[in-house]
Amino acid sequence: MKELFQHAAVTEGVTVRVAVNFLPEQSRIEAGKWFWVYHIRIENETGSTIKLMTRHWRITDGNGEVGIVDGDGVVGEQPVLRPGASHDYVSGCPLPTPNGSMEGYYVFRLEDGTEMQAQIPFFPLAAPATAG
Where is each ApaG domain found (predicted)? Predict the structure, then answer.
């Protein structure tokens, strides 16, 4: 199945694309747990090699509760992207509500040692009505 990236943000030549899907088989709705999987593709269209150093997520549930997640790299990696290269990874997000949202940014180190932030696009997390 070819995934369609529903959301994208471009920051100074770095494109972050997101495809998100609700996973009913990973959710326990009767226990108040909903689960989504998201596929991220980071594309480097800058003129230099960049290394993903850290991530910052702002996760909001349907009650307006906000969780902040900061950490090194993504899923245990700090990928290095040469010009024209891309990096894909998949992760997941549980929520105590059938809807919410995610957004954030990555920090990349450029070849000259400077750092830049690349925006992760805002994307909604919404379970189908039949799942809630």
Answer: 8-132
